[in-house]
Amino acid sequence: MYMRRRTWVAGAALVALAAGLTACSDSDTRAGSCTDGTYTWSGVERTQKVTKLAAPITIARTTASYKAPLEVIDTVVYSRTVTPVPPGAGRSGVLAALDEHLDVDESKAGARGVVDTRHGDSYVEGTELHKGAYYAWSYVDLVDADFTYTCEDVDPVKGHVRTWDEIGSDLRPCAEAAPSDSGREAAARRCPTGSKAAREA
Question: How far apart are alpha carbons 196 and 23 in whole angstroms?
């Protein structure tokens, strides 16, 4: 009787263990196969950052082109982040979904790896510039967004994305209003007091 009871207990344990492994396997499979879920986006916020600035520019006479050295003022290395990454969706899948939602122009977004602002460069203006004061700057248009990823048989995943939808450089006359938030910041720092761009910055 003792031996039979011991055998029965061991058998029951093995059955329970097998059931547990099957349940985990099924759960993992469902989570890993959630590749066709839907995204709901909310809390989308854009922040323009000036990353580099030229010294105040004065054009003494009409010139066909101009090269403005840009000095680093923002030493942050920006990267695209997804927290957390939904199982089965992948980081690239979440970023691609947000790009589609925002209708991102890839030609303006530049390389999608990182935005490294730690190195200076130059802005070259190839059109005619007239006598006057100018300012030049580089910028990154950051995007923050919250998402909910919903897939059948899997609990919804809530997360956050930090990315950008445009990077670039520009040169503008101080006699005109700045075209953007980053332009207004640059104008306030580089245009002469009393100029239109500085007044409206």
Answer: 69
